[in-house]
Structures are given as C-alpha cells and as structure tokens.
Known about the structure:
Layout: H1 2-25, E1 44-47, H2 48-51, E2 65-70, E3 77-85, E4 90-99, E5 105-108, E6 120-125, E7 131-138, E8 141-148, E9 167-170, E10 181-186, E11 192-201, E12 206-216, E13 223-226, E14 239-243, E15 250-257, E16 260-267
Parallel strand pairs: 2-8, 10-16
Antiparallel strand pairs: 1-6, 2-5, 3-4, 3-6, 7-8, 9-14, 10-13, 11-12, 11-14, 15-16
Amino acid sequence: MRTIRIIAFCIVAMFFLNGLYAQEEKPVIDCNYEMPAFSDNSALMIDARTVSDKFGNGSKVAGFNVKIVNYSKYKSAQFEVFVHSPLTQKWESLGNETLPGFDADANFGKKFPDLGMYRYFAVVTKDASKYDFKVEKGMAKIEILVYTKGADMTQQPLPYHEASNAYVFTSKKLPRGASENIRMINNSSQQTLSVGVFGWDKKNYEWVKIASIAAQAGQKKPTVFEADNKKIHFSKFDYLSIVSPDGKKYDYIFREDHSDWSIDASDHIGD
Length: 271
C-alpha cells in the first residue's frame, strides 16, 4: 500500500511540474500580426521567426539580444536598431552604436529584458556608406553581419587593405607553432622580390607594419627576416597581410620551417 501511495504521489507531482513548465512556456504576448510599416524604406527589416522558430513567438528567451558585427571596409559604421512592441504598437529604439572598424561589434537590447518575445526588428544605417547584410541565428541572439556593398558574403571576411595588391589572410593559415621568424623563397620572375608584412591591430582597427624582406631569385635556401620589434610574434595577430611595393600581385604558399613559417612566393596566376 505504501508503495502504491509513493507511486501515486510521484505521478501527481510529475503532472504538477509539467503544468508549471507548460504555463511558463505559454506566449506572454501575441505576436501573430503582419510586420508594421516603418518610416525608413531603406531599413533592414527582420522577422525574428525567419531567423529561428524559437524567436518572436511571444515567449521569453533568456539572454536574448541583437548583435551587429562590422565586416565592412568602413570605419565608424553606425546603426540604430528598432523593435516593434506589440504592447505599445510602436517602433521603439534599442540604441544607436558606432562600430569603429573591422570585426567591431555591438549588442542591442539592454532596455528590453524580454526582447526575445518580440518579433519584428528594423536596422537603420546612420552613416553615408552602403552595406550588404547577412542575418544569422546566434546563441540566443540575432546576429547581423555587415559587409561592404557588393562583397562576396560566402567568403571568410578579412580586413580591408588599401593596397590593391595586398594578400590578406588569417593567422590560422600559419603552421601551428610557427611564429618566431619568416622565411621566404623567391620563385617569381623578379630578380629581387621585396615585401612588407603587416598585422591587423584590432585595438586601433588599422594595419601596422611588422617586418620587411628582400629575397633573391634562384636561391634554394630561404631568406630569413624577423619582426622589426623583437617582442612581436606574428601569431599574436588574428590577420596578416603581405604587400610588395612594386604594386604587383604575387601568389604565396605557406609551410612550416622549424619554429618559423616559410613563404614560397611566385608570380600571380589569375585576375
């Protein structure tokens, strides 16, 4: 008899807890309405339900916010984000933020702790530059990736370099542990190939020169060069670029050479 009572108690408790959970998951507000008109026709309009079926249903989403990341070539990219409140039936501003350079980001939504319940958002560009946008689902957030107008958004975003012949790449391309020096073999048609290596300063959002080298053609042994500042390791930078002052493009193949990394430079094939 005691066993039966315990089982019965557990069943009742289970139904009680399930009822509480279901009650918590019920929509708090009604978001089943068409996207309202917005005053700026050029704004990026977002229906949160198209990003994730867990967003914009009137139910709470813990820690929800809207994040914008600047992958464009522009500094001082500025955006204002709005949300449509079904409670006030108005578009309300979540804030205005300036993204000072590549990979800078900003989070919107501190004013609205229950932002995940709301369905419709608008992003307004506040500076004069033109952008393309990619909207993705992040961890309990809507992520808006900002690109230079016309950029290939299928490729990995890289910092913009003003030199048209710059070869820009992520430091993940470097062999693991290769960070002390750089070695280069000149397989190009140039008798002497001079290049500079730049690192992306993510604090100041600019390229800083790290080192330079001049490699002679026909030498099987790589030419070694170190960073101008001995305290700098190339691997400390998330992004690097190689630029030849002659204005020509070259192709580069990376490989590990003991504790250094080696570049095989050759004439550019392609556009």
